[in-house]
Design a protein that fits this description.
By secondary structure, this protein is an alpha/beta fold. Helices cover 33% and strands 24% of the residues. The strands form two sheets. The protein has a five-stranded parallel sheet. A four-stranded mixed sheet has the order 1-2-4-3, with helices on one face. Helix 1 packs parallel to helix 2 (38-50) and helix 4 (115-130) packs parallel to helix 5. The radius of gyration is 18 Å and the shape is elongated.
Length: 209
């Protein structure tokens, strides 16, 4: 068993360091990663899932969790599909989404100036997304944009609609922690900076209101 202590380390360091260890681990070897928050647990398990690896976690204290990942588990890593998935980024998907189109929402407000107006514009922007003939493949929310995907947001219903149509809704876990919104996420799933960078670098078009 390989043990990693990632407590006190900011996202995406625990994910990146765990990926490095998994690359050199023997088949069937368990990598046990200790972290200090549930967001890190979710990010590690999501990474394991993307690689087709078995994972499980245990809570050892208020701020101590251990995620155990079995190296080289059964199932081909989803990363192997990347070349096929990115061959025709701008070809519309059958479910109405357009592959390779990523919408980035980094604030509760659209534009600069009066905040109340900015809130109104952002609400209108997210609603307008739901009315497009071709929907984006992914919506990324970080910094102040994290408020939009949480309970109480005027845009939550529209984001839920997009999710129901197959749009991937991802909110930064570090941002949810910072704004104390971790328990209020109302749509989609938590992501980390590694995945955010990956989504943006692989995108054919990035839309920022």
């Amino acid at each position: 068993m390989i043990r990693l202590d990632e407590r006190g380390k900011q996202c995406p360091i625990p994910v990146i360091e765990t990926k490095k260890v998994l690359k050199s681990a023997s088949e069937g070897e368990i990598v046990a990663v200790t972290v200090d928050n549930e967001i890190a647990v979710q990010n590690l398990q999501k990474m394991a899932d993307h690689k087709g690896l078995h994972s499980e976690y245990s809570k050892r204290g208020d701020r101590e969790f251990t995620v155990s990942i079995t190296a080289s588990g059964a199932g081909a890593p989803k990363e192997n599909l990347k070349d096929e998935e990115t061959m025709d980024l701008c070809v519309p998907a059958e479910d109405g989404r357009r592959k390779g189109i990523v919408v980035v929402l980094s604030s509760r407000y659209m534009g600069t100036g009066e905040e109340k107006l900015g809130e109104t514009l952002m609400k209108g922007f997210v609603y307008a997304l739901t009315q497009q003939e071709q929907l984006p493949e992914t919506v990324l929310l970080y910094n102040g944009g994290a408020f939009l995907s949480c309970q109480g947001s005027d845009s939550l219903e529209d984001l839920l609609y997009l999710e129901s149509k197959g749009v991937e809704i991802l909110t930064c876990g570090t941002c949810l922690n910072f704004y104390e919104l971790s328990e209020k996420l109302g749509v989609g799933s938590v992501t980390n900076m590694y995945e955010i960078v990956e989504k943006e670098t692989n995108a054919s078009v990035i839309i920022r209101p």
